[in-house]
Design brief:
Rossmann fold; 6-stranded parallel sheet; 14 helices
Length: 379
């Protein structure tokens, strides 16, 4: 079978890029002939004998312009070509496809964004424009013939509600996690190393947040509000992810949180950071199926997550995770953190159950489900 996969990036260190990287790697290991169309891809899949990589050169321009450039160039690249299966991600092309993997519904996000996330000035106008363009593109792309894989039931329902997609053409395929890379094994060593790096005591409780701090959608500001209400000096917050300007640093200084809230920027050693921490908190306003949450669960961490992330669908509240009713409610977030921080046995039980649940969502499971759909086109 000759398969073409189209997305912006096949890269391990970013959300959608990681999903498509894992899918490409799975299919290549199965022996299929794979053509990758993207801006960049990891060398370990590009170098495989049965994989051909077609790089799409994109100039360094604002994100929305780069997306439109990509769409234009990829349609030119695909013109006149024929594949047994053409698999795309979201609104990357206007070309007819067989399978489209939806990881984000801009038409649904638009309803949330306008009420809580718009910034004043040029940036706010840009985000409005970006969401509006993608929302209109979704109406065109998801209306085409072909099946859609939704990363969660949340996404499936949004495609039906906002884009009137036929529910019969939507298949739910949850994202996955590498349970060998993300594990609780070696926790004591990782914890000691991190405590030494930060100058913290073994009595301290490390609360971890991993996400893009430049994006309000991830909910870091609600977590900071929650920490203003937590008075226990032992409870520390580690903020991991790209930062926008000095916004969070100024907030931390203004409220005297410098000793308890540590912005650590972008880190590549996330597997070790999960193992070293005690609690993972992710109060996102919108997620299809957060890989970060699955990674934290696989690492044996009790997770406090928003009901607005599709990953909450795989959790049982109070058993293998804690689900927030309102991710914007700082009081609710602070209460959940304090309960876990003060009760080691609860942390341990939920963390162990989270690991067991994550074992059911390995990347291999995702790959197998996609393979079944791909093979349906070969019949």
């Amino acid at each position: 079978m000759h398969i073409a996969l189209v997305t912006h990036r096949f890269m391990r260190d970013e959300g959608q890029g990681r999903i498509q990287y894992e899918l490409a790697r799975y299919l290549a290991r199965k022996g299929y002939v794979i053509n990758l169309f993207a801006i960049e891809a990891e060398s370990d899949i590009v170098d495989l004998n049965n994989v051909s990589f077609y790089r799409i050169p994109i100039p360094n321009l604002p994100h929305i312009i780069k997306d439109l450039f990509f769409m234009l160039l990829i349609n030119i690249k695909l013109s006149g070509k024929s594949y047994d299966v053409l698999h795309i991600t979201g609104t990357v092309i206007l070309h007819p496809y067989h399978i489209n993997n939806c990881q984000f519904c801009h038409s649904a996000w638009k309803k949330i964004e306008k009420s809580v996330c718009y910034e004043p000035g040029v940036k706010g106008l840009y985000h409005r424009f970006f969401t509006s363009i993608n929302s209109n593109l979704e109406k065109v792309v998801y209306g085409k013939h072909g099946i859609i894989t939704a990363a969660s039931n949340k996404i499936r329902n949004e495609l039906i509600k906002y884009l009137d997609v036929d529910k019969e053409k939507i298949h739910i395929v949850y994202n996955g996690v590498n349970t060998d890379e993300f594990t609780a094994t070696g926790r004591d060593m990782c914890r000691k190393r991190l405590l030494d790096e930060l100058g913290f005591s073994n009595e301290d409780i490390l609360v971890l947040f991993i996400g893009d701090l430049r994006v309000k959608r991830k909910g870091a500001e609600f977590l900071l509000e929650a920490f203003r209400k937590i008075k226990d000096e032992r409870i520390k917050l580690l903020l991991i992810g790209p930062q926008r300007g000095r916004h969070y640093v100024r907030y931390i200084k203004r409220y005297g949180l410098q000793k308890r809230v540590i912005p650590m920027g972008f880190r590549k050693d996330t597997a070790a950071l999960y193992r070293a921490s005690d609690i993972f908190v992710f109060p996102s306003l919108y997620e299809a199926c957060s890989i970060a949450v699955l990674e934290a669960m696989a690492s044996g961490l009790p997770c406090i997550v928003s009901k607005e992330t599709g990953t909450a669908e795989v959790m049982e509240n109070g058993v293998d995770g804690i689900i927030l009713k309102n991710p914007k409610n700082a009081v609710e977030i602070s209460q959940k953190i304090k309960i876990l921080a003060e009760n080691y046995e609860i942390r341990k039980r939920i963390g162990e159950n989270a690991r067991k649940k994550a074992l059911q969502y390995r990347w291999e499971r995702m790959g197998l489900e996609y393979e079944k759909l791909l093979l349906s086109y070969a019949k």
